[in-house]
Design a protein that fits this description.
With about 230 residues, this protein is mainly alpha-helical. Helix content is about 80%, strand content about 0%. The longest helix has about 35 residues.
Length: about 230
């Protein structure tokens, strides 16, 4: 149950970051593409530049996944086995640092690029953390993966309910729908929170996303401490 709550919190944060990234980058998209076009000098080179940017995002995702796996492993090996609380606290610290950075330099196209880089990194980080801690039961906190899991669960449920099986009642066949549906709801809720926060505070609002991470991290750390006693 702790893993499910943990995954739901991370998914809410993921939705908020994704929505903030879209809203933040949209006004600067033309400027960023214009800068890329000027620096490359041709449409062909612009395509190369976009490809390099995509590979950079992929590398950031992979780096985040590596760091997420390392943080979980460190939490398991450290004193008291803080495998649940440590990843939350690390991500919260990253968001607070980035929010402070946003307040200090203000909004700019360059800053938006840094924010999108952080989003790519944290996407890989969160996926690695929830996959490792849930032993594959929860594989992602991103909407594409959640929708894929939900689609698979719907297909399996339709197959099982269309052919009655005494050993597996229809109600039991729909149970796999619960987790991906809950995660999807958390992602949508986080997206609305992220858009509202950005509209009032700009990208500095990402620091506020650290609050549920810190609260959950402290709660999980306390429960881990009691379980060790």
């Amino acid at each position: 149950m702790k893993i499910v709550v943990f995954a739901m919190i991370l998914t809410c944060v993921s939705g908020a970051l994704a929505a903030s990234g879209v809203v933040a980058s949209w006004p600067h998209l033309e400027v960023l593409l214009g800068t890329l076009r000027i620096s490359t000098g041709s449409i062909g080179m612009e395509a190369v530049g976009l490809t390099v940017a995509g590979l950079g995002a992929l590398l950031l995702f992979l780096t985040g996944a590596v760091c997420g796996g390392a943080v979980v492993a460190r939490g398991r090996l450290g004193a008291g086995r803080r495998e649940l609380s440590t990843p939350n606290l690390v991500e919260g610290a990253l968001l607070v640092g980035f929010g402070a950075f946003a307040i200090s330099i203000g909004d700019s196209p360059e800053y938006v690029v840094c924010f999108l880089a952080l989003v790519c990194f944290l996407a890989g980080y969160q996926n690695a953390v929830v996959t490792e801690l849930s032993k594959g039961a929860v594989g992602t906190t991103q909407v594409v993966g959640i929708l894929t899991s939900l689609g698979i669960a719907v297909g399996e449920a339709l197959d099982r309910t269309s052919v009655p099986r005494p050993e597996r009642p229809a109600v039991e066949a729909t149970k796999p729908l619960i987790l991906p549906s809950a995660l999807l709801g958390c992602f949508v809720l986080g997206a609305f929170v992220g858009m509202a926060g950005f509209s009032f505070l700009g990208l500095a609002s990402c620091a506020l996303l650290a609050i549920p991470l810190f609260v959950a991290g402290e709660h999980l750390r306390g429960s881990e401490h009691h379980s060790d006693l």
